[in-house]
Write a structure and sequence with these properties.
6 strands; 4-stranded antiparallel β-sheet; two-stranded antiparallel sheet; 26% strand; 3 domains; 3 helices
């Protein structure tokens, strides 16, 4: 009877209902429980309500795939295939396979017409194309 009167005097209805369900709690345990809840509520009031978070790398950066400034993972070159080198996810201005072409000779000997072109990419691979009588031959030269 005294226990129930003590519980009904608690102003928080959630705590009141929980204590009424616990039939085996003594008066001393109820008092200890209420004190611990009161202390917890006071600590919550002392804690700051807002948490400050420093945003890192949220700004724009210079993209190595399209050479423009934008946010991370927002490149317009994503999922695009470049026609010239067949590379994916980059535009021409950011292509790492800069092709240098030089015409070595253009001869017309009367019998055949010959043209040779050498292409060098940023790798150590050379490609030699030779056109003889409108037939193109391709040679890959590894250096």
């Amino acid at each position: 009877m005294i226990r129930d009167r003590l519980i009904l005097g608690i102003s928080d209805s959630v705590i009141q209902q929980r204590l009424l369900r616990e039939t085996d709690m003594t008066i001393n345990k109820i008092i200890e429980y209420c004190k611990s809840i009161e202390i917890t509520k006071q600590h919550k009031l002392l804690e700051p309500t807002e948490t400050q978070v420093d945003v890192m790398n949220a700004g724009k950066f210079k993209c190595s795939k399209c050479n423009s400034n934008h946010q991370a993972r927002k490149s317009p070159a994503f999922n695009k295939t470049r026609a010239k080198c067949q590379g994916r996810n980059h535009f021409a201005q950011a292509c790492k396979k800069k092709i240098q072409t030089e015409d070595l000779e253009n001869e017309n000997t009367g019998w055949t017409s010959m043209r040779e072109t050498i292409k060098r990419t940023h790798t150590s691979k050379l490609t030699l194309r030779q056109s003889v009588d409108n037939v193109t031959l391709r040679y890959n030269i590894h250096t």
